[in-house]
Amino acid sequence: MSKISKFFKGGGSAASKSRGGPSPQEALARLRETEEMLSKKQEYLETRIERELATARQYGTKNKRAALQALKRKKRYEKQLSQIDGTLSTIEFQREALENSHTNTEVLKNMGYAAQAMKKVHQNMDLNKIDDLMQDITEQQDVAQEISDAISNRARFSDEFDEDELMAELEELEQEELNKGMRDMRLPSVPSTSLPSRPGKLLTCYSTFLRIKAISTRKRAEDEDEMKKLAAWAS
């Protein structure tokens, strides 16, 4: 049995054997160590190849035997270097596959934990109660929407009264105020004495009459404005 077979078949620490095989972390560590060892071997072989080429150039035709021996050694080193390249490719592939397997294992493990947690949470849930709860929530949302619509709509007090009746009542009030104003307006009585001979006194009497008439007209206008405001408020 070769040393490599013994290594993979019986190698490894006692702790790994007691557990029935190495863990993924241990295997990955071993593979990285092997990659590092082979990389160093590659550097050594590349240095030897360059050295043998220099030796062959040095002897050349002067010492063909020594030059040929150097070239033979170079060929052997190149063959070993090629084998190491293939081995490194195989180890790299194996390491990547192991890393992916380890990652998938961890992912599945965590997904299993999450599934168990979800199962535990759902054990305390009743689908019938959830349906009832969602139905209650929907109903309360509808009620809240109806309340919001009712609050946002402007109150319409004018719809309770007949506008034609209100206008007729307003005209009656205006007519009463007009009649009252006419009754309250008193024209100056005709003087019993003879008219003044001078025009100045006559003009003074006429001016007094105009002021009284203007006061009456202004009072009537104010009353009409008050009635219009009242009508506007009622509508």
Number of strands: 0
Task: Describe the sheet with the most strands.
Answer: none
Q: In the CATH hierarchy, what is the architecture of one domain at level 2?
A: Orthogonal Bundle
Q: How far do the termini sit from each other? A: 114 Å
Helix/sheet category: mainly alpha
CATH T-level topology of one domain: Helix Hairpins
- The H-level CATH homologous superfamily of one domain, spelled out, is ESAT-6-like
H/E series: HHHHHHH
Shape: elongated
H/I helix tally = 7
Membrane topology: Peripheral membrane protein
Protein name: CHM4C protein
Subcellular location: Cytoplasm, Cytosol; Late endosome membrane
Keywords: Coiled coil, Cytoplasm, Endosome, Membrane, Protein transport, Transport
Question: Care to describe what's here?
Answer:
- The chain has 235 residues and is mainly alpha-helical.
- Among the domains are: 22-124, Orthogonal Bundle (Helix Hairpins), CATH 1.10.287.1060; 126-182, no CATH class.
- Helix content is 82%, strand content 0%.
- The chain is built from seven helices and no strands.
- The protein has helices spanning 3-10, 14-18, 24-59, 64-122, 127-152, 163-184, 199-234.
- Helix 3 (24-59) packs antiparallel against helix 4.
- It is elongated, with a radius of gyration of 59 Å.
- The protein starts with a helix and ends with a helix.
Short description:
The chain has 235 residues and is mostly helical.
Task: Map the helices and strands.
Layout: H1 3-10, H2 14-18, H3 24-59, H4 64-122, H5 127-152, H6 163-184, H7 199-234
